[in-house]
Structure formats: structure tokens, C-alpha cells
Write a structure and sequence with these properties.
Number of strands: 11
Shape: globular
Largest sheet: 9 strands, mixed
Number of helices: 15
Distance between the termini: 31 Å
Order of helices and strands: HEHEHEHEEHEHHEHEHEHHEHHEHH
Length: about 375
């Protein structure tokens, strides 16, 4: 993620639609505090037990929030294994939602050291003082000045760029005759078939796409007109087979042809395409987002967490990740190390960048409670 599969982005998640993945966890405490949003993609799993967070005998470790699916497989190859080989610190992957992370912090029983979350979710956690400062001055693997300035913040640092894109089944929609805008996605008469769109539990509902479908220009989206967006969504509500809450769920809906077109994270979609699924991406009006690293305050392995983030941000690691999942690096020095065949799949490529737009994460963070209430009321209402 997305992303990079809530994506994710990886979204991926790369942010679960196996039996364990499809189980929706109780998010009540978090939803009451922050609306129905800011929940990034994750495997559905309980909080760590006391025994599962204990350091392995004689070994140092860092507990990293896992996102499941293709994203986690990519992270394992590009980051987790190389990190352990280089430092001797074991990476323990623990599925957890943003709601669970918040509950850990509030209960003062933090059992995850590093989180990999959407910008909106981390901004919400930062508001309640849940994040440690990033130790930029102590970095040895990464030159902090190489990180894009816009994603380098005191308590969170950008991990990757991802995008939510329109993905369609090429057996149903031929390349010359598929929806090429959200207005056409909304046109179920011309382009019939089951759809899938994100639920607010994924981090953010697709209000931007609903407004674009209703004629709002990309540069006039914010502040979002929520009532207008929901009214636009009314037009296709009955055609949405499932409102997905995890990146893994979104991918499986398209892979299984339960939906023939949908809005999902580009890395999730590309993974399926690379494996031979009859799917294609339409990059027009794609929504770009940033996935961030953070260290949770009072985490048991905070020092190792800082080393982990330092290692993860270095150019060779970020470039390696693009070999396994199509999310763009935030380290500017990594760009020249990305293979041309991988670069063509990234949301930060000039051709893709020029036709997309950036989600306003701060706006979403500031309006989560209001949107959460309106979304829950709308989603439960019959069309």
C-alpha cells in the first residue's frame, strides 16, 4: 500500500480472507473514538498472548505487525530475512489491526514494536501519543535526507507509495471496451457485473471515487462532500457484491470472479496479474496513498524497532521490494536501483502519476468520527 493491501500497502496484507482473514474483529472501542475509519488492512487475529510476545531464548527479536497475503510474502523476501541475516534480530510477524494497536496502547500492554500502516491510521494513533519519535540521527543503513521530505515526519516515516486502482476482468471486459473512469465504473447499464469497493473498515471508503463519478474534478475533491458522495454510492450499492475490509479480501473477490470489476490496491492486483489471473489495471483517476513505518510507544523491543526501520528504508531494500510487489519506494536513492520491468508497474511512474491524484490523509484523519457515523448509517440502510 496502497497502500501500499490495507495492500494492505501493501497493502498488502500488503492489510486474511482465508477463514482467519475473513473474520471481522471487534473494532468498537476504536470506532467509538475515531469513527469507522483508520483501520488499515491486516489479518484478523487476537492480540498477542503473553507467551507469544516473549523473546526467544537467547535471541533478540522485533515484533512487526503483519499484513498477510502477497504483501507479507514480499516483505519476507525483501526485508525480514535479509534483516535477520544482517543483524541476528529475529522478526516475529504478528497480525493486528489499528484498533488492536490502539487498545494495546490504552491498556498499557503493548506487544507489537513496529507497525506498517496507512497514513490515515497512523495520524490517528499519533494524535493520542501512541508513537515514538523516529531515530533519524542514529540511522546507519539509511541516509534520512534521501527519504522524500513529504513522508518524513517526527513520529512516522513513509515506507512505500501505493494506489487504489480500477481492476477489471479481461474475460468480461475486453481491453478496448472496459470502464476507463469512475463515471463509467458507475455506469452499470453499459458495463454490467458485480462490483467490489472498500468498506470504511479498510481505512477509508471510496468517497473520492463516488464524487469523481458524480462529476467533481480531481483538483476540487477536498474537502469531501460526504452527503453527495453517499448519494452517488446509492446508485451502485445494489451492484456491490461485497464492501471489502482487507487487501486480501479484495484480491480474492476478483480472483474468484465473485466480482468482475473493483477498486483495490495496485500491488494486490499486480500480484494476481503476474500469476496469470485474467485481470488488468486502469490507471486513470487512481488514488495514491502512503504506507508508513512507526514504533509504538512503550513497545518491548523499541531499540530493535528503530534498527529495523533504519534497515527497511535503505535503497537496496526498497528497490528489492519492487521485485516482489508493485509499490513505489520513498527513498529517492532507491529509484535508480529499480529494474525497468518493475518500474513500469509502480504508481509513482510518470505516466501513472499524471492521471492519478493524492488522497488527503490529513482531511481523512480530521474527519474520521463524522465519516464513520455517516458511513455506518448509510451501509446499514437498504437501497
Amino acid at each position: 500500500m496502497g497502500k501500499m493491501d490495507n495492500e494492505k500497502p501493501e497493502a498488502k496484507a500488503e492489510q486474511n480472507n482465508s477463514a482467519a482473514e475473513s473474520t471481522t474483529l471487534s473494532r468498537r472501542r476504536f470506532l467509538q473514538a475515531a469513527g469507522a475509519g483508520a483501520l488499515a488492512v491486516s489479518s484478523a487475529a487476537p492480540l498477542l498472548t503473553a507467551s507469544s510476545s516473549v523473546r526467544a531464548q537467547g535471541k533478540q527479536q522485533v515484533v512487526v505487525r503483519g499484513l498477510g497475503g502477497a504483501y507479507q510474502e514480499a516483505m519476507d523476501k525483501a526485508l525480514y530475512k535479509p534483516f535477520t541475516e544482517a543483524t541476528g534480530i529475529e522478526v516475529v510477524v504478528q497480525p493486528a489491526t489499528a484498533a488492536q494497536i490502539r487498545a494495546m496502547v490504552e491498556a498499557k500492554r503493548v506487544q507489537v514494536d513496529v507497525v506498517d500502516l496507512l497514513d490515515v491510521a497512523l495520524l490517528s494513533l499519533d494524535k493520542i501519543g501512541a508513537l515514538e519519535p523516529i531515530a533519524y540521527s542514529k540511522m546507519k543503513y539509511t541516509n534520512p535526507n534521501d527519504i522524500q521530505p513529504g513522508v518524513r515526519h517526527p513520529n512516522m516515516v513513509g515506507n512505500l507509495y501505493f494506489a487504489t486502482v480500477m481492476v477489471y476482468n479481461t474475460d468480461v471486459f475486453k481491453s478496448a471496451n472496459h470502464p476507463k473512469s469512475w463515471a463509467e465504473f458507475w455506469d452499470v447499464s453499459k458495463f454490467p457485473g458485480a462490483r467490489t469497493l472498500a468498506d470504511q473498515k479498510s481505512g477509508a471508503a471510496e468517497l473520492e471515487f463516488a464524487l469523481l463519478a458524480d462529476g467533481v474534478p480531481k483538483d476540487k475533491l477536498y474537502p469531501l462532500d460526504v452527503p453527495r458522495a453517499l448519494k452517488s454510492l446509492d446508485r451502485i450499492k445494489k451492484d456491490v457484491v461485497k464492501w471489502w475490509d482487507t487487501g486480501a479480501a479484495s484480491a480474492q473477490l476478483l480472483e474468484r470472479k465473485e466480482a468482475v470489476i473493483g477498486a483495490i490496491w495496485n500491488g494486490r492486483a499486480q500480484d494476481l496479474i503476474d500469476k496469470g489471473a485474467p485481470l488488468a489495471i486502469e490507471w486513470n483517476q487512481a488514488k495514491r496513498q502512503v504506507q508508513y513505518w512507526s514504533v509504538i510507544k512503550n513497545s518491548p523491543n523499541a531499540a530493535n524497532a528503530q534498527i529495523f526501520i533504519d534497515f527497511a528504508l535503505q535503497p537496496k531494500v526498497q528497490a528489492a521490494l519492487t521485485r516482489y510487489i508493485a509499490y513505489g519506494p520513498t527513498n529517492q536513492a532507491a529509484v535508480k536501483l529499480v529494474r525497468p520491468e518493475d518500474a513500469a508497474k509502480l504508481p509513482s511512474m510518470p505516466d501513472h502519476f499524471s492521471v492519478g491524484f493524492d488522497q488527503n490523509a490529513q482531511w481523512w484523519s480530521d474527519n474520521l468520527s463524522t465519516i464513520g457515523e455517516q458511513w455506518q448509517s448509510w451501509i446499514l440502510r437498504r437501497t
